[in-house]
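A note from the maintainers: we've had questions about how concatenated examples are separated. There is no special marker in the raw files; a new sequence line simply starts the next protein. For clarity in this README we add a label.
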Amino acid sequence: MEQFGEFVTNHWMLFSALALVLVLLANDLAGGIGRAVKEVSPRHAVQLINREGAAVLDVRETKDFQAGHIVGAINIPEAGMSERLRELEAARDKPLLLYCATGMVSGRAGSLLKKNGFGRLYSLRGGLSAWQQENFPVARD
């Protein structure tokens, strides 16, 4: 044990770096546990839709939705979501897949939905951009 103390003293920078990595790792793991919305890949999103009947919610602006969206998605922009929560009542007890353009806005929308009693919330990692990179179908109005 005495040698261990001497080793730590001689290599304090190495142990400082190790401590920092361990703290960052613990923070990342703990953050994932408390998140309101679980991020999923486009392939996992397809499984949620096909196997579990997930409802799909596009939180982008209406003009962006009309330019292209996931087939079967409903559009409620994140900015006005709190006023339109009643439209999502049918999806309250099933998985709800949220997406935006790149995956940043859907997390905020998910937090609002979580506060209003929605349980199984998923965010499409990378948003519609990632969906299109996988060559999954996009509908246009």
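[label: protein 2]
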Amino acid sequence: MNIQSIYSRISPHFRRRRMKAFLDAMRPPVSSPLLDLGGHPWGWALAGVSFPVVMVNIDIPEGAEQYAPKFTMIRGDATRLPFADGSYEVVYSNSVIEHLGTWENQQAFAHEARRVGRRLWIQTPARWFPIEPHLIAPFVHYFSKGIQRRLLRWFTVWGWLTKPTRHQVDAFLAEVRLLTAREMQTLFPDCQILRERLFGLTKSYIAVRN
């Protein structure tokens, strides 16, 4: 078993529930494409959506072309989008903004999403949820990066299954920066911040401008 097989068992339930909430709340128009920052076409295909979707991603995954022309992938950086102001009716993103490494990059991402989209749905895991979702481990993300560097290999499911090198541990710590509710509100001041809960605890935040 590898870490991806665990993710594939856990995440679909939350993604289906989140997608239903998104579609019910936003009702994206079928006449114009939705912009997905950091997404992949198979998620939309599985959801059976009836509208076109444009996805911006740094890397285009193998096999994405089979979903064209309904689902289009563009290689690009979501912190510097090549689109005019307000050019998309809806901008969507699921669990991407926490992978940008720095607060400055997250600010740039939020600015571009707000600039390009007339309506927004931006989701991210909550920092204060006790289970770190990428590592599948309790509380480890509450420590400083110096302590995390010593814990990730031996005290997380990700570490046990992936057996990361020191370089991979450093790369993870440089990439993932989970956000608090206050930070999300700062990033998206004109949005309502919804809370997705699990066992009464806030599992993720969703910035919604509708």
